[in-house]
Design a protein that fits this description.
Two copies of one chain form a homodimer. With 672 residues, chain A is of the alpha/beta class. Chain A is built from 21 helices and 22 strands. In chain A, the strands form six sheets. In chain A, strands 10-15-14-13-11-12 form a six-stranded mixed beta sheet, sandwiched between helices. In chain A, strands 3-5-8-9 form a four-stranded parallel beta sheet. In chain A, helix 18 links the parallel strand 14 and strand 15. The radius of gyration of chain A is 25 Å and the shape is globular. In chain A, 61% of the residues are buried. Chains A, B: Belongs to the glycosyl hydrolase 3 family. Chains A, B: One of its GO terms (biological process) is arabinan catabolic process. Chains A, B: InterPro entries: BXL, GH, Glyco_hydro_3_C, Glyco_hydro_3_C_sf, Glyco_hydro_3_N, Glyco_hydro_3_N_sf. Chains A, B: Keywords: Hydrolase, Signal.
Chain lengths: 672, 672
């Protein structure tokens, strides 16, 4: 079909017109069969690209999504997604030589996850861009743009915004849970980033969530799909169900009587593609007049429009030339390392960091030499990777002593098991400085079914460090050596004791295959830390409302009434920056950023807006930029503030911008 | 007590004389408490040193015992054990600064395991030195000597021969199993290496097994302990029970009525130390007149003689100076790499190996990038390690493509799981040569409780490759590229299809932390393979008698009537060797070995004896030596044959020696 002058939509229409009802229904399942008489190969729609091509063998593994968000580097995230889609497309080009694709071999990525990480206990929170809708919207937009490419005709890879909507735990209840949410929270928090990404990036697809929202199952919700997504938001793409979510409508939510009714509810509200088995009943649903054939046809046209737009049927699609040489190529590995550097957040530093390479160091903790904490979840398999320990070993010039120190979670070591504490104390005694590598791993915070966190099904019962690690921290602290606390997790943990006992605290989100190298780059000052927290670090479980309460009251930096240990957007550097000539006029903040320290460093400038008269919200992130400056260098910057955020404030308000801690009043009251 | 002129035995006698009965009884448990009034610190006797200090944190991890046996390098094994005991002692010197030792912190090693690997299905077989009593005796002797050191006064570390006796599965039944064995098999196979090691190395300790032998529980067996070990063999050391084995006597074997009787049975037959809890009942047993206090005293004297001989109470013990700088020192890592090189056995080579570094290689298989297959069981935690994949990546100059290819064991991949086969086929298509890294891992063949091999509790139901891997082999073979089959396992597997389909087959026993480097050294010809099989590689499960049958009939190279795929002691090289001037006179074989090839290489010369008139046994290994020669170099060798093996042959027999495949008749019929 090379050289076809018709649009993808026209080609889809013409092709689908030749299909029987049965053929059309079959194409609405994620594992769509071939239609040989029409030249349609079998295609499995399910692929994953959260932070690298996932579950499809060797691939560059970038930092987990929460770490990408912590970079506050929109361009870097777009570049990351572009690298990922190159690898996915290259793999697809190879896999299709088998004449069809299997699962995780196609070019329709069910990424990114732009749910709001409203509660640190949610196991899948690290798949998201954090707690703020604007940051999520910016990162999601960059990621979608990077995945989908900028060819005027073809999409490189389809991006899918998920999980639509209001999805954030509990994992154990997700198939039957009804998230109850008010209109303000719905639009200002839970749906905000979906709309933003749709407006700014034109994603190919949206995935419906498992849960109900205010009584309606997300994958069959007239309100969410028909009224808001296709209506208010003007979404142009296709909707896919989460896997098994449509059978959940009758089996778990008990909103319908059987699978035919569930399928009809979903399809009639615009869910064109089914991951799972419910659409086996589509023909029955049509026969029962629950769905019209026209509705089926419209769905299948949407799906084939996407496949045509992906160039699946064309010889001259430019992405056909991508060879697997791009997979884990040096450029991608270097980008992964750079993003990992930017993703780590220096939370405290009394001057201990950076370290001198000559120091003898004790690397202690259950996460020091664990490959899994590099990878997060929804990950690929790196052919090479550098654990935190190995990164330090490769960079250090003094002696490196390693001691695991404790079991990751088990406090009581079995009588006949290894007792690793004493080795850790000895290692600390003999070293100049201790680097504690602690925290969680992706088995402790994950997805229902993936994770083995006891009754919590992937969620966490607490934000406290496991007691085994608390004990290790206390015992090693008694040795009296300077300590760096490296916390590896995908979420906020209670780091109060680490903050008290350690000279430096560094947050490492699951950092990808190059994580150990990036950590060493920061510890030894090769690179300045520049990451910022995309989530609030609370002091205790007592700071958290009930997990199942979806009200945003007292959640995230916007609404939390307490004092966090480390606030949203917090992040230190080894150099220092000053803002000069700060101005807030109309819809933008401008100024000059100067590197007043002695090292080159990256620096994000998040701009928050607040209305001192409005007690309902502390402030709102409304713009951000990021610069990298040499010592002494100064550069002007301009942050365009987000129109949709500005719109949330009363036009007459005495609007104030918080720019890196400095307050600046808006000069002209005009909103636009 | 520095400068004490008394012998260790005298000091033990004098110290124990000051103890109460209760104090003495408590000292017979492995977790012996302190006796502050006598200056005796608490001491935990349990430590492990199978192929490196185990379960005690960072340590050099050498090849698993079965791999050490495959080196056929007696001096190398002694050097390995010396390195291990240096590390153990150095760690002890640190741990004792806490005023006591915990488990895995002492200097009494419950190693080596010199059981006979009579059946490849036994899960713990890889802890042993293989199927041959003589090879086991030589390796065990070297290992004990290396552990115990050669100080005239002090032992560096106590070695413990285990498991005495006739212990080799099934793991699931080990606490209640009664191994029924005839006298010839008992003495010529199961006990032979124990006696040999006792005669030649003077081990400090022997550990009793879990099982019964001909009805008697091993840890309480008059026949095994009193009559044979202390009587016939003249053993001078102490006996320790396997962990929980004494409670098994009443609870599982039902030979006694209660723990007091079990403890009495064990102590009265010479088992001085109890791993487990049975000796809590010792005071009761004495009160019931089941044991005399004199017997208790004699046991405790043996134990304290050992502790004095280890220098635990002396300031001037030369081993006190060993600092933890020896742990994972460069010399030990180099030795581990060298032993790993020697432990790998080239089973087939049609000229494919060694590889040119410029070739593009596909490294395929579930064992390619698995740390656990480096480590085996009873292992330490290496601070650095090189997986097979990484070793190849570091050595190759062409492109290395990695594909896992399949799950280690699961044939049916879940519908929503990764489907890794196609990636492997693609990698093969694009490469010049395929290196398949297949086999088992230490979770699939291990100990009861350790392993998760379903119903088999660590044993294997079959010697076939898992069907997932069989399928991968067949599919990759269809690509038609030259293939090297790297089989990682601790035991014989059925490699018939690998032998048919692949140009080269290399057996890699769990090779230790440097395993990947050693593999690359061999694959790329940096070093010639020189390992030899310490076990017969059978063709099929049909070659094996029932697992629970302890008769040696039709087992091992000595008695097997069939045709193995690769026989015991088989092992190829990249160079070639010729034997010249071969003579067999009296008790020795002499000759000249010439390296007739073009590469330096090591070469073991095992000497088997056979009596053509004796149909009951095929042949018996009776001597061995090992040389390393440059190309063209020749060196004389002399192999002293083992007196105890010669004694097994009829004096008048027409004795023939098989030397590396060449037969030579004994010139003088005199046996001695």
């Amino acid at each position: 079909m090379t050289g076809d002058k018709r649009t993808a939509r026209e080609r889809a229409h013409d092709l689908v017109a030749q299909m029987t009802l049965a053929e059309k229904c079959a194409q609405m399942k994620y594992d769509a069969p071939a239609i040989p008489r029409l030249g349609v190969p079998a295609y499995n729609w399910w692929n994953e690209a959260l932070h690298g091509v996932a579950r499809s063998g060797a691939a560059t593994v970038f930092p987990q999504a929460i770490g990408l968000a912590a970079t506050f580097d929109v361009d870097g995230v777009k570049g990351t997604a572009a690298a990922i889609s190159d690898e996915m497309r290259a793999k697809y080009n190879q896999y299709r030589t088998f004449g069809e694709t299997q699962i995780y071999q196609g070019i329709t990525a069910w990424s990114p996850n732009i749910n709001i990480f409203r509660d640190p206990r949610w196991g899948r929170g690290h798949e998201t861009y954090g707690e703020d809708p604007y940051l999520t919207g910016r990162m999601g937009t960059a990621f979608v743009q990077g995945l989908q490419g900028d060819d005027p005709v073809y999409r490189k890879v389809d991006a899918t915004l998920k999980h639509y909507a209001v999805h954030s735990g509990p994992e154990r209840l997700r198939h039957s849970f009804d998230a109850k949410v008010g209109e303000e929270d719905l639009f200002e928090t839970y749906l905000w980033a979906f709309r933003y990404c749709i407006d700014h990036a034109g994603p190919s697809a949206v995935m419906g969530a498992y849960n109900r929202v205010n009584g309606e199952p997300a994958c069959g919700s007239k309100t969410l799909l028909q009224d808001i997504l296709y209506g208010v938001f003007g979404f142009q793409g296709y909707v896919v169900s989460d896997c098994g979510a449509i059978c959940d409508i009758n089996r778990e939510h008990h909103v319908t009587e059987n699978e035919a009714e569930s399928a009809a509810l979903a399809v009639n509200n615009g869910c064109a593609l089914n991951c799972g088995d419910a659409y086996k009943w589509l023909k029955t649903a049509v026969a029962l007049d629950l769905i019209s054939e026209e509705t089926i046809t419209a769905c299948v046209e949407r799906l084939f429009e996407a496949r045509f737009r992906l160039g699946m049927f064309d010889e001259d699609c430019p992405y056909n030339d991508l060879s697997d040489d791009v997979v884990e190529c040096p450029e991608h590995l270097a980008l992964s390392r750079k993003m990992a550097q930017e993703s780590m957040v220096l939370l405290k530093n009394d001057g201990l960091l950076p370290l001198d390479r000559q120091l003898n160091v004790a690397v202690i903790g259950p996460n020091a030499d664990d490959k899994s904490v590099l990878l997060g979840n929804y990950n690929g398999t790196p052919s090479q990777y550098t654990t935190l320990l190995r990164g330090i070993q490769e960079a250090a010039q003094g002696k490196v002593r390693y001691a695991r120190g404790c079991h990751l979670t088990q406090d009581q070591v079995g009588r006949w098991e290894e007792h690793p504490l004493r080795e850790a104390v000895l290692a600390a005694q003999k070293s100049d400085v201790v680097i504690l590598c602690m925290g969680l791993n992706p088995q402790m915070e994950g997805e229902e079914g993936d994770a083995y966190n006891g009754d919590m099904s992937g969620d966490k019962a607490t934000i406290d460090l496991p007691s085994s690690q608390q004990k290790l921290l206390e015992e090693v602290a008694k040795v009296g050596k300077p300590m760096v606390f490296v916390n590896v997790s995908g979420s906020c943990l209670n780091l109060c004791r680490a903050d008290e006992l350690c000279g430096a605290v560094l947050q490492v989100f699951y950092p990808g295959a190059e994580g150990g190298k990036a950590l060493a780059d920061l510890l030894y000052g090769e690179v300045c830390p520049s990451g910022r927290l995309p989530v609030t670090f609370y002091r205790s479980d007592r700071d958290l409302p009930p997990f199942t309460d979806y009200s945003m009251k007292d959640r995230t930096y916007k609404y939390f009434q307490g004092e966090p240990l480390y606030p949203f957007a917090h992040g230190l550097s080894y150099t220092s920056f000053a803002l000069e000539d700060l101005r807030f006029e109309g819809g933008a903040v401008e100024g000059v950023l100067r590197n007043t320290g002695s090292r080159r460093g990256g620096h994000a400038i998040p701009v928050f807006l607040k209305d001192p008269g409005d007690r309902s919200v502390n402030c709102r992130l409304a713009g951000l930029t990021r610069l990298e400056l040499d010592p002494g260098e100064a550069a002007p910057f301009r942050v365009e503030l987000c129109r949709e955020i500005l719109d949330l404030f009363d036009d007459s308000a005495a609007l104030t911008a918080l720019v890196d801690g400095e307050e600046v009043q808006r000069r002209s009251a005009g909103k636009k």
